[in-house]
Amino acid sequence: MLDLLIIGAGPAGLSAAEAAQQHGLDYLVIEKGTIANTIRQYPVGRSMFSTPNEVEMHEGTLKPVREKPTREEMLSHYIHFVLDLDLRINTDEEVVAVDGNINEGFVIKTDRSEYTAARVLFAIGAMEIPRHLNVPGEDLPKVHHLFVDPYAYVRKDALVVGGGNSAAEAALFLSEEGARTTMAIWREDWENRDPKAGAMKHWVRTPLEAEIKAGRLRVILYKHVDEISEREVKLTTEGGEVLTLPNDVVFVLVGSDADLTLLKQLGVKMDSGKLAEVPVYDPETFETNVRGIYVAGHFTHARHIKAAIDVPRRIVPLIAKELK
Ligand SMILES: Cc1cc2nc3c(=O)[nH]c(=O)nc-3n(C[C@H](O)[C@H](O)[C@H](O)COP(=O)(O)OP(=O)(O)OC[C@H]3O[C@@H](n4cnc5c(N)ncnc54)[C@H](O)[C@@H]3O)c2cc1C
User: Fold this and answer.
1) Which ligand 1 atom lies nearest to the CA of residue 96?
2) How far apart are CA 133 and CA 225, in angstroms?
3) Of 43, 179, 191, 255, which residue has the fewest beta carbons closer than 10 angstroms?
C-alpha cells in the first residue's frame, strides 16, 4: 500500500510529490495528461501574469528572458523539476474512481490499473469542465472551448465569446495574426476595471483597444448567442437587435470548473463558492470531512500557482507525521 497517492501533476501535485519524497513517503502521482497539463494548454507563447517568484518551484530557479515567464519557459521549468528530482509520476493515466476509508485504506482505480493508498491528495485543478453556452450548434467541430493558437484562422471569420482575460487574449491574438475577429462580451465585463473582480489586465486591454481603433477587431456588447451554424452565428445584442455574422470558427471562453464527482462520491461536502462549488476542508490541514482525503490547488480557496505550490509543502509533512 502506498502512503500517499496524488491525483494531478500540475504545480500543486508536483509540489506535493517533492514534499512526499523529502519526507520519505511511498508516494505516486497519477496524471491523466502530461506534466503541467493545464499550462501546456495555455495559448502558445503566452506570458504569465505572475512574476517568476510566484510560479517557480524553488527561489531563483526560473530565469525567464523577460520580466514574466512564457508558457514554454514554465513548461520547461516544471518538466526539469520532475526530471532533476526523479519524481514518481505516471502520465497518460486517469483516475476514474476512489473508494475506501482511512482505516482500511483507499482503493484508487485508473483507466490502466488499481492502487491502494493510506492517504489521497486531490490536486486536480479547475479546468476539467469548460463552461458551455448551451445553444444550438455548440457541438459543431468548429466550436472550441479552449484556445491554443491562432495560425489556422488567418483570413477566416472568428468569433470569441467571453469576458475575461482568456477571451480577451484569444481575440487579440487572433486579430493580430490576421483572423477577421469579433468579440462578443457582456457590458458588465467590458466595463469592469476591478482586477479583484477578474477585470481584463491592462496589458491585454491596451493592445486590444488599439486593434479595435485600427478597425481590425470588432466588439459586440451582446445579450446572448442564439445559434451557431456551419457558416454563420446568430446573436442578440444588448439592445435586442439580432445579428447574423459570417463565421468559420467560434471560441467559447467563459471559464471552466473542476470535476468534483470523485470527491462527491467519497462523501466530501461542498460549499457553494462565489463562482463554483468548493470542497469543504480544514484550512490548516486541507483535509476534507472524509478523513484521509486531502485537497490542494486551483479548485480550493488557495487558487493561484503560488498557493498551489505552498500548500502541499505545509500539509504533506503533517500527513507524514500522522503516518509515522
Ligand atoms: C490561460 C490561463 C492562464 C493562467 N495564468 C495564470 C497566471 O499568470 N498566474 C497564476 O498564478 N495562475 C494562472 N492561471 C491559473 C493556473 O493555471 C492554476 O492556478 C494552476 O494551474 C493551478 O495548479 P494546480 O496544480 O492546482 O492545477 P492544474 O495545473 O490544473 O493541474 C491539475 C492536473 O490534474 C490533472 N487531473 C485532473 N483530473 C484528473 C484525474 N481524474 N486523473 C488524473 N489526473 C487528473 C489534470 O490533467 C492537470 O494536469 C492561468 C490559467 C489559465 C487557464
Assistant:
1) 41
2) 8
3) 191
Ligand 1 site, CB within 6 A: 7-13, 30-33, 37-38, 42, 48-50, 94-95, 123-125, 127-128, 166, 297-298, 303-305, 308
CA distances in angstroms from 129 to 58, 113, 146, 238, 240, listed in the order given? 31, 24, 11, 27, 30
Q: In 10 A of CB 164, how many CB atoms?
A: 18
Ligand 1: which residue has its CA nearest to atom 20? 305
Contact 266, 234 (CB under 8 A): no
Nearest to 19 by CA among 295, 309, 304: 309
CA dihedral 230, 235, 241, 246 (to 10 degrees): -40
The three grid cell numbers given for residue 259, joined into one nine-digit string: 470535476
What 3-state DSSP class applies to 140?
coil
Residue 109's pLDDT is what? Answer: 98
Are 185 and 167 contacting, i.e. CB atoms less than 8 angstroms apart? yes
Which residue CA neighbors atom 35 of ligand 1 most closely?
A: 8
Q: Where are the alpha helices (DSSP H) in 150-260?
A: 165-176, 187-191, 202-213
pLDDT tens across 139-195, in order? 999 999 999 999 999 999 999 999 999 999 999 999 999 999 999 999 999 999 988
Measured in residues, the chain has a length of: 324
- Is it the case that residue 275 has pLDDT exceeding 90? no
Q: Which three cell numbers stand for residue 98?
A: 476512489
* End-to-end CA separation in angstroms for the chain: 14
pLDDT at position 163, please?
Answer: 94
* Angstrom distance (rounded) from CA 6 to CA 26: 11
DSSP letter for 196, please: G
Give the CA radius of gyration of the chain: 21
C-alpha 204/C-alpha 77 separation (Å) is 25
**Residue-wise pLDDT tens digits, 104-114:** 999 999 999 99
